[in-house]
Amino acid sequence: MSVSSYLDAISRLRDDLARCDYRADAVLEAIGEPGQLGLTRNHSVAATRALAGRDDGLTTLIRLFVLQQAQPAAAVEAALHAADLVRLGLLAREGDGFRALVDIRPYSDATHQIEAWVVSDHAADLDTRRRRVASDHVLGVSPASVSLAQITPRGPVGGALDLGTGCGVMSLHLSRTATKVVATDLNPRALTLATLTFALNRAAVTTRYGSLYEPVAGDTFDLIATNPPFVIAPADGPRLAYRETEFESDGLMRAVVHDAGERLAPGGSLHVVGNWAHVAGADWRDRLAGWVPEGCDAFFTERERLDVYEYAELWLADAGWAGTDGYRARYDRWLAYFDAHRIESVGLGWVTMVKSGHQTPRVRCEAWGHPVAQLVGDDLMAHLKAMDYADWSDDRILEQAWTLAPGAVEETLGQPGLGDPSHISLRRTDGLMRATAADTALAGVLGACDGELALGSIVAAVAQLTSSDPDTLVSAVVPRVRDLIAETWLSPGALR
C-alpha cells in the first residue's frame, strides 16, 4: 500500500470511529460500570450482557475490538470501511464475518484533554483463555503506562523522547506539550502499531528503531519518559519484547537511568516506571544511588515491594504460563535465577531525575506505599529542587521567607471542652499526600509561613506569644523545618 493510500485509509478509519461515537465515555456508558470492572479483570461477560439487543455501530466496534468477538460482515461494513482494514492487517475475514486482528481502544485523559484511539495487540487472557503471548506482543494501555503519564510533568518542553514507545500512548501525552517528540522501540511490531496510533490521532511523532538510546545517539532532550521492559527474569526461555530484555537482573533499569545523563539537555528530566532488585547484603538505596550519573539529581520512589514468590507468580501468569504443564518448571527456574543473583525481593516504583549540573549527584530514595494525589509529577520534581534548599545553613533558612504548600491542612484531636488539642497533625492533599505531627509552636510557625516574613522573625514572634525562650525554640524548630523543606511542605518565597 502506498503512503497516500495508507493515509487515506487511516483518514477513513478515523472518520468511521468518530461517526460511531467510539469514545471512552460512550463505551463506558454502553457497557456500564460492571462491564468496565469486568474488563479490568479480563472478563467480558458483564460487558457482553450489557450490549445484548443492541445493533448500532458503536456496539459493533466494542464487540469487534474490545470484546474480541467476530462480527457479521453486514454489521462491520455498515460501521467501517472493512476492505481498508483488511489491507492494513487490522481485520481478517472469518466465515461470513470479520474478526479484529488488533485492539483499537478509545483512550481519554481529562487533564491533558486527550480523546484518542490507541492501537495494540489484543489481551491474551480475556475470559481465562490459556493463550501464550507472542514474543513481539504489543501491550495496550496498562497500569504502568497510566502511571508513567501521571508522574510525568505536564508543562511545555522543547524536545521529548518516548523511550520504548510500545503502543504509543505516552507519545500522545508528550505531543500535547512538546514541540518535538521522538518515539523509539526495539520491537518492529510496536513501531508499526504505534505509527497507526499516531496517524489515527494526527500526532506529529517521529519514530526510530533501536535499543535504548542508540536510535538517538548525539541528540539531547528536555524530557525523557519511559516504561521500559523492566521485568527481572531468567535469561533462558522465551522472552516477551514488551517486558523482558537480555540484561541481567535490573541492568536494564540501570542503563536507562545512567545513560540518560548524556541524552538530557541541561535542566532536562527523566521519568521512569520500573523495577529494581533488593540484593542480599546491599542497601537498595546505595545501589540505586550508584546508577545516577554525574551532573544529575534523582528521586527514587518505591511504591511496592514483592517477595520473589509473588513476583514470579505475577509475571508467569502475565505470560500465560498459569495452568500449563510447564508452569512449575518455569517457576523453579525463576527462583533459581533469583538465588544466583542473591535477589531477596523486587521493588516497583518511579524514578525522577534532573540534569542539574551538580558534579556530585544528590539522590533521595524513599519507600512510599501510601495513596498519592494525581497528577504527582510536579511534586516529584519539587522534591529534587527541595534537596538544594534543605542543604542551606541554619542561618540562611532563618533569613529566608517560606511558603507553606497550598495543599496543607491542619487536623487536631482533643477532648471536648479543653482549650488546647492533645494532638496536631498536618496533612497534604496534593502530591505524595504526606502527613506529619506538630506541636503548637511548630504549627504556629508553619501557619504564618506565607512567603512574606523571614522564618527567624516568625519564630521570634511565636516564642513571644508562647512565652518560650527564642534560642530554644530556634534549636527545636529549624531541624523540623529542614525536614519539611526536603519533603516539599515549604518552598522559598523571593530568594534572599
Verbal overview:
With 496 residues, the protein is α/β, with parallel strands linked by helices. It folds into three domains: 3-101, no CATH class; 114-385, 3-Layer(aba) Sandwich (Rossmann fold), CATH 3.40.50.150; 392-492, no CATH class. The chain has 18 helices and 19 strands. The chain has helices at residues 3-19, 24-40, 45-50, 57-66, 73-79, 82-87, 143-151, 169-174, 188-200, 251-263, 284-289, 308-318, 327-340, 377-390, 394-399, 440-447, 455-465, 470-486, and strands at 71-72, 91-94, 97-100, 103-109, 114-120, 157-163, 178-185, 206-209, 221-226, 264-279, 297-307, 343-354, 363-367, 401-404, 408-413, 423-428, 435-438, 450-454, 490-492. The chain has an eight-stranded mixed sheet with strand order 8-7-6-9-10-12-11-13. A hairpin with a 6-residue loop joins strand 16 (423-428) and strand 17 (435-438). Helix 14 (377-390) packs across helix 18. The longest helix has 17 residues, at 3-19. The protein starts with a helix and ends with a strand. The model has no long low-confidence stretch (mean pLDDT 93).
